[in-house]
Amino acid sequence: MKFFADTAEIADIKELAATGLLDGVTTNPSLIMKSGRDFMEVTKEICGITDGPVSAEVVALDHAGMMREAEILRKIADNVCIKVPLTIDGLKTCKALTGEGTMVNVTLCFSANQALLAAKAGATFISPFVGRHDDNGFDGMELIGDIRLIYDNYDFRTEILVASVRHGLHVLQSARIGADVMTAPPAVIKALFKHVLTDKGIEGFLADWAKTGQAI
Ligand code: E4P
Q1: Are 86 and 107 in contact (CB under 8 A)?
Q2: If exposure means fewest CB atoms within 10 Å of the residue's CB, which of 22, 108, 173, 210 is most exposed?
């Protein structure tokens, strides 16, 4: 499963990229707002840190406007992936852009039928929002399972990018189901490395090693 960082914070992206385990980055207008950075400038900087896809979201709601914005965004770097909302105009834009060889991430997916439509529109990635789905009384992981089943039934190549990930259990369940990618805030990714027994084990080994009086 690929790991994307869901952030526009440069320091966090650099830290995760240095582990060699980062496969891409997703941003959205809220994350750009939080960063306080210029959209074009920060997107270009992120594209220089990772070779993987960097999702940059359009804000127009109509097809012509989305195409106009995508034209500007895709010139930033070869690894820019245009993010469009799951609407009729968004999917029209998805079909047109992927037809021209541009990567497209269809975002704000909350149903398996929406995911089916995105795959038919040739989306590179579909982003079902599991956290927001859970928040509203639905089962986010059940949605991922349904999409996996449907995509496998028809051999759709669209990658399932689990988004709105809130904790390690979302990551574990996504991997069990066979999602292609998950995107999570840096803090959630960093927490995956941690286990209390790992820390305790290191502490015990180092204490015993010190008693040997040896050095490597
Ligand atoms: C990613 O592409 C999404 O924009 C993001 O995961 C949304 O997460 P949130 O529900 O925590 O805002």
Answers
A1: yes
A2: 210
Please give the angle made by the CA atoms of 118, 69 and 54, to the nearest 5 degrees: 65
2: annotated active-site residue = no
> Are the C-beta atoms of 14 and 50 separated by less than 8 Å?
no
* Length of the chain, in residues: 216
Q: Which of 14, 34, 75, 83 is catalytic?
A: 83
Using the mean position of ligand 1's atoms as its centre, give its distance from the Cα of residue 105 in Å.
Answer: 12
The pair of three-digit structure tokens given for residue 187, joined into one six-digit string: 């803090």
Class of domain 2-212: alpha beta
User: What are the residue ranges in the chain where pLDDT is below 50?
Assistant: none
Residue nearest atom 9 of ligand 1, based on CA coordinates: 164
Instruction: Label residues 117-148 b or e (16+ Cβ within 10 Å = b).
Output: bbbebbbbbbbbbbbebbeeeeebbebbbbbb
